[in-house]
Design brief:
The complex is a heterodimer of chains A (363) and B (259). Chain A is mainly α. Chain A has 13 helices and no strands. In chain B, a hairpin with a 2-residue loop joins strand 1 and strand 2 (17-27). The chains are: A mainly alpha (363), B alpha/beta (259).
């Protein structure tokens, strides 16, 4: 078959020391790589200071390059090429992650810094009715956002879920492809276009200049339906075909199989997808700007006139802060903070849904 | 309970591809019939055509007749859902419903079909089916636990319990032991011997010893060649197939002389 190969350790390179069949190599001390990288950052900071004034951005650029180089070169000379490549990739990936975190941390910090001042009970208890300068709150806008988002979910979830069920369980051929294509197109619709669509639709019936809460819900639905369809489709596809066949083999009709086997099996994923879709549309500003408008008083009826919503509230407080302007700007930051808290709460809800509704293994 | 199955001139297609051709066979009631043959020769396709499960795959269709006690399963006025209520099926991989407890898995056939039963009747049905599947003593204290927490062999017996809970006429088994260890396999083979008293059983297996051990009749499927439809080479009592087969191809396959 093949020539006999003697089982002798191949290649005794400078890195290997003991004579056993498994080569042992010198290694960097445990925190060596981290230390080298931080050293690179410090050198980078000094370099910027020397070449004309310290700056954070340049420190990061110089530091990451120098730190990565230091880690690679030292590792290469001590540990050999394979280990050095491993260290290089680890360093690059970790740096990329850290850089990606910078805007997120900075954003959260800025919003907290500027928004915490007005995160008081007055903000949650009063509207902007009769407020010009200090005081006032977003009571009307918070409730408006909740109402309009709830209406959006009521419109989008049934349509989106049923579409996804059609695509996965029933659809075939051209119609399925056409629907998938249209859903993809809808995913890319700019939000202002959705707003203008809803405005044009309602203007046909109620004349131009119309502003209603339900219009906002329709506009947001245009944005939310494709997200629901996409996520629900992916989740339904994950249900193993064997479960469907098991149900068919028991003589269960198709609609009952979908209702009693497929949906319960994927309920956790469906709930998560819907919650994240809600989180996606809750912060939309542009479509609400043209369909719902803004109002200073509290209007809880989405079928009658303008309503206030958090993103639009924030926008107007920032662009038309009143006099003196600092109070309006403070309210804008706090509204943004409340919006972030709402989105985070929805994400936590999504996590909880996944945990509690996932099929249990019983082990 | 048990019914006789007569298959005549059955051709099975996936779209334009003819997968199985010209099957003529009579399956006796209260017997175990084993189907053996190389992979891809159409055994499973044929088995699935017996309760119209192959129709789940788009484009699949049959020509010919499958008659169960005088009624053509492919008659114009026959609903495949009703066929499957009469002819149950156990699959290669155990597939209990992951969202349901052991108890709910057993009564899934009744409950998913919208059947209304009192709690007492359901309890009886669960115990009877689980005893029928030789699983009762192992799970009677944890009926409310998820079915997916059982071992593979127990899950497969749970699936058998689920299939016999709807009281079918015929039980089709598609390689029910191929994912199981020898002890679980033995448990299921013993179970089949008991179920034979009540049901007509058709089993697809790659394990020749298993076919020889459990079945009364054996059918050997083979392919003419790549891309050609599979066909039934020989159908005879198991003893004859394994000792003195009529066809050379059967003997070659059974004794391992092929390829």
């Amino acid at each position: 078959m093949s020539t006999e190969t003697p089982l002798v350790p191949v290649g005794t390179r400078p890195g290997s020391s003991t004579p056993g069949p498994v080569r042992t190599r010198r290694r960097l001390p445990r925190y060596g790589a981290v230390g080298l990288f931080l050293g690179g950052l410090v050198v980078g900071a000094l370099l910027t200071a020397v070449t004309g004034g310290f700056s954070i951005a340049l420190t990061v650029v110089y530091g990451v390059v120098l730190g990565t180089l230091a880690v690679y070169l030292v590792s290469r000379s001590v540990e050999g090429r394979r280990k050095a490549t491993d260290r290089l990739v680890t360093t690059v990936v970790t740096s990329a992650f850290a850089i990606a975190m910078v805007p997120l941390v900075s954003l959260v910090y800025t919003v907290l810094d500027n928004g915490l001042d007005r995160l008081d009970s007055e903000f949650f208890n009063s509207s902007m009715l009769g407020i010009v300068g200090e005081g006032g709150g977003a009571y009307h806008a918070i409730l408006g956002t909740v109402i309009i988002t709830a209406l959006t979910a009521v419109i989008s979830v049934p349509i989106g879920l049923l579409t996804a069920i059609y695509l996965v369980e029933y659809g075939s051929g051209r119609l399925k492809k056409a629907i998938t294509f249209l859903v993809d197109v809808m995913t890319g619709i700019p939000s202002i276009v959705a707003g203008l669509f809803a405005y044009a639709l309602f203007a046909l019936f109620f004349g131009p200049g119309i502003r209603l809460g339900i219009m906002g819900a329709v506009a947001l639905s245009v944005l939310m339906i494709p997200v629901v369809v996409r996520s629900a489709e992916e989740v339904l596809k994950l249900v193993p075909n064997e479960l469907r066949e098991a149900a068919y083999a028991l003589g269960v009709p198709k609609w009952r199989t979908v209702l009693k086997v497929v949906i319960p099996t994927s309920i956790a994923g469906l709930g998560t997808g819907i919650t994240l879709a809600v989180a996606r549309v809750i912060g939309e500003t542009a479509p609400l700007l043209v369909t719902v408008g803004i109002v200073t008083g509290t209007n809880l009826n989405p079928f009658d006139g303008r309503m206030a919503t958090l993103p639009v509230f924030s926008y107007y407080q920032l662009t038309q802060p009143g006099f003196p302007p600092e109070f309006g700007i403070e309210r804008a930051w706090t509204a943004a903070l409340v919006l972030i808290i709402l989105v985070m709460a929805l994400n936590v809800v999504a996590r909880l849904i996944t945990r509690f509704f996932a099929p249990k293994t019983g082990r | 309970m048990a019914k006789r199955i007569d298959v005549s001139d059955l051709d099975i297609y996936y779209g334009n591809f003819k997968a199985v051709e010209g099957v003529n066979v009579s399956i006796e009631p209260r017997s175990i019939t084993a189907l053996i043959g190389p992979s891809g020769c159409g055994k499973s396709t044929f088995l699935r055509s017996l309760n119209r499960m192959h129709e789940v795959i788009p484009g699949a269709r049959v020509e010919g007749k499958v008659v169960i006690d005088g009624q053509d399963l492919y008659g114009a006025d026959v609903d495949p859902v009703d066929v499957r209520r009469q002819i149950g099926m156990v699959f290669q991989r155990p597939n209990p419903f992951p969202t349901m407890s052991i108890y709910d898995n057993v009564i899934a056939g009744v409950r998913l079909n919208g059947g209304k039963m009192r709690k007492g009747e359901l309890d009886e049905l669960v115990e009877k089916s689980l005893r029928g599947a030789n699983l009762w003593t192992e799970v009677k204290d944890r009926l409310d636990r998820p079915g997916s927490g059982l071992s593979g062999g127990q899950q497969q017996r749970l699936c058998i319990a689920r299939a016999i809970a709807v009281e079918p006429e015929v039980l089709l088994m598609d390689e029910p032991c191929s994912a199981l260890d020898p002890i679980s396999t033995l448990a299921i083979e013993d179970l089949m011997a008991e179920l034979k008293e009540r049901f007509t059983i058709v089993i697809v297996t790659h394990n020749m010893q298993q076919a020889a051990r459990v079945s009364t009749s054996t059918g050997f499927f083979n392919l003419g060649g790549v891309g050609q439809p599979g066909h039934l080479v020989e159908f005879n009592p198991t003893e004859k197939i394994f000792s003195n087969p009529e066809e050379k191809a059967t003997e070659d396959y059974i004794s391992g002389r092929f390829g």
